[in-house]
């Protein structure tokens, strides 16, 4: 029996790192009596602290249930957690630590009973049709008598060989207890440095069946019989290959990428970035209208250097995308409530960032600096006969973190309760002498019935109403028609505009294809162009003649000079011959 328990009546689990004993030789006891019996079990024999059963996770409780099942034990047992009278919080009996049992499906301690019993039952899994364990706990009166299990923790392996650095490394799983196989990994904020694989080392702490980076917690009992579990000798075994070093994750911060901050950090000398190590924090002051993403009630923000993924060499900044400061938000509910009946929130634009938001982004309309367009639906107008009004999200007076809506571009708050059905003003369709139109006109007030009128009835026309005016004799519209139709549009404006008639002009002759064909004649400017071209040619030829004459004169002068020089040379030669004679 090479396990770290007192004797073979105890059951060891390398998953929990504990020894468990079923107290079958004792009768059922109250919670206090059971606790006392456990604490005295190894008294005078070992310094091991024996206590009532503790289950601190779903995995640990499942391990305990399997140990009980293998022993054929199916009774409810005490666990070492209780609460004081009149309190709601359960605590482990040997510590002041709160007993977190939220992984159980239970009442949470509702009702009477300050102690907790643990049990299990076998049940079939509906998905796999296989037998499984269903775990149960409930709080009961501490004076009830229940069976009980005792437990104690065991010594762990320490001082791992092979270059393990406790400052930068850790084990997974973290329990380095006898019979546990663990792997060396870097601590958060560290990453394994890739290096060439060194040669293996041999020795008593080497197990060649292990992979690189793996450790096995081995151990030896001091005797074959009952023995003090605290004298169990533990020893780490490893593969013989030293573990790779762990280095600290680095984050690069590019200050130019930071937006909406007052105190942008300075780059490292000669660089466009600055380096920070894992865990470093940068403090920022948000610009006007912006607050911390983490705390919307503060203009002070932070960014921290963190690790992208477990064991990753890449450092990342949190919040991501440098979004440490975000825009103050006005109330979205208030914006929805101020929207008039028969209107919609059409769009928004931030003139500071030039960012636009469409109708599918209504949940982003309420950012600081946004100008929100409130538009009446087609066929409706505001009482002041405009289609749109604009609202601005700004800061509440005296606050740097609270948003408030204001009217924008002439809009006065509050907005009207509703948009009214569109009409067109008859005043905008009154004939004037300069219109050159007949005084009698026709009107169809969106009823399909036309009326002949000489003046308007003195009330607005309905949407889609039509008016037809007629040009006086000798006049026509700009489209060369004898009449003009205008319609009341969705915007409450007559379309097209009433601009009157103009005097009829002489019709231009046109061919069958609708194009105008005038009399063919030479353009007057063509003769002028010909004369200018002739003069330019004469001037050009004159320049050539002048250049030629200049060249001839120069060549003649050179010839005469050369002849004189030749004559002089002949005379000198003649004189030299005579002197020699």
Classified by CATH, the class of the largest domain is Alpha Beta
The stretches of 5 or more residues where confidence is low (pLDDT under 50) are none
Backbone shape? flat
CATH superfamily descriptor of the largest domain? Mannose-Binding Protein A, subunit A
Helix content: 10-25%
**What is the C-alpha radius of gyration, as a whole number of Å?**
50 Å
Organism: Opisthorchis viverrini (Southeast Asian liver fluke)
Keywords: Disulfide bond, Glycoprotein, Membrane, Repeat, Signal, Sushi, Transmembrane, Transmembrane helix
Protein name: Lectin C-type domain protein
InterPro entries: C-type_lectin-like, C-type_lectin-like/link_sf, Compl-Cell_Adhes-Reg, CTDL_fold, Sushi/SCR/CCP_sf, Sushi_SCR_CCP_dom
Describe the structure.
The chain has 581 residues and is of the alpha+beta class. The chain folds into 5 domains: 18-153, Mannose-Binding Protein A, Chain A (Roll); 169-247, no CATH class; 253-305 and 318-327, Complement Module, domain 1 (Ribbon); 332-421; 423-503, Complement Module, domain 1. The protein is 15% helix and 29% strand. It has 4 helices and 37 strands. Strands 1, 2, 3, 4, 5, 6, 7 and 8 form an 8-stranded mixed beta sheet that branches. Strand 6 and strand 7 (131-140) form a beta hairpin.
């Amino acid at each position: 029996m090479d396990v770290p328990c007192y004797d073979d009546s105890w059951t060891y689990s390398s998953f929990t790192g504990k020894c468990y004993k079923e107290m079958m030789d004792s009768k059922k006891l109250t919670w206090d009596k059971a606790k006392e019996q456990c604490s005295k079990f190894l008294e005078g024999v070992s310094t091991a602290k024996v206590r009532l059963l503790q289950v601190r996770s779903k995995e640990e409780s499942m391990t305990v249930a399997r140990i009980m099942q293998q022993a054929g034990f199916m009774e409810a047992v005490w666990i070492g957690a209780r609460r004081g009278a009149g309190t709601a919080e359960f605590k482990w009996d040997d510590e002041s630590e709160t007993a977190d049992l939220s992984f159980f499906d239970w009442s949470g301690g509702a009702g009477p009973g300050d102690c907790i019993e643990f049990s299990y039952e076998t049940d079939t899994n509906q998905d796999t049709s296989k037998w499984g364990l269903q775990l149960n706990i409930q709080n009961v009166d501490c004076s009830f008598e229940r069976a009980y299990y005792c437990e104690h923790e065991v010594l762990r392996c320490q001082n791992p060989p092979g270059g393990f650095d406790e400052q930068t490394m850790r084990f997974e799983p973290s329990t380095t207890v006898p019979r546990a196989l663990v792997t060396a990994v870097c601590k958060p904020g560290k990453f394994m440095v890739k290096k060439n694989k060194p040669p293996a080392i041999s020795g008593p702490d080497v197990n060649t069946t292990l992979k690189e980076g793996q450790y096995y917690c081995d151990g030896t009992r001091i005797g074959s019989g009952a023995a003090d579990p605290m004298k169990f000798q533990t020893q780490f075994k490893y593969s013989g290959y030293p573990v790779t070093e762990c280095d600290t994750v680095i984050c690069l911060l590019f200050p130019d990428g930071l937006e909406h901050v007052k105190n942008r950090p300075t780059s490292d000398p000669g660089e466009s970035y600055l380096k920070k190590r894992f865990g470093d924090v940068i403090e920022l002051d948000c610009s006007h209208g912006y607050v911390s993403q983490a705390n919307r009630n503060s203009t002070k923000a932070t960014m921290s250097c963190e690790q992208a993924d477990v064991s990753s060499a890449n450092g990342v900044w949190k919040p991501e995308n440098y979004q440490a400061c975000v825009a103050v938000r006005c109330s979205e509910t208030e914006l929805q409530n101020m929207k008039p009946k028969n209107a919609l929130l059409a769009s928004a634009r931030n003139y500071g960032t030039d960012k636009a938001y469409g109708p599918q982004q209504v949940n982003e309309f309420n950012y600081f600096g946004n100008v929100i367009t409130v538009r009446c639906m087609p066929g409706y107008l505001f009482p002041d006969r405009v289609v749109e009004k604009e609202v601005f999200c700004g800061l509440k007076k005296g606050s740097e973190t609270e948003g408030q809506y204001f009217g924008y571009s002439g809009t006065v708050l509050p907005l009207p309760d509703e948009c009214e059905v569109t009409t067109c003003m008859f005043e905008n369709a009154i004939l004037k002498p300069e219109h050159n139109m007949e005084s009698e006109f026709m009107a169809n007030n969106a009823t399909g019935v036309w009326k002949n009128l000489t003046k308007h009835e003195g009330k607005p026309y309905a949407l889609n109403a039509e008016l037809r005016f007629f040009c006086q004799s000798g006049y026509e519209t700009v489209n060369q028609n004898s009449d003009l139709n205008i319609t009341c549009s969705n915007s409450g404006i007559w379309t097209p505009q009433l601009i009157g008639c103009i005097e009829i002009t002489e019709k231009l002759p046109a061919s069958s294809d609708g194009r105008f064909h005038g009399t063919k004649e030479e353009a007057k400017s063509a003769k002028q162009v010909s004369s200018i071209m002739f003069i330019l040619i004469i001037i050009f030829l004159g320049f050539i003649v002048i250049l030629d004459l200049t060249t001839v004169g120069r060549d003649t002068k050179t010839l005469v000079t050369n002849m004189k020089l030749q004559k002089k040379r002949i005379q000198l030669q003649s004189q030299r011959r005579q002197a020699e004679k």
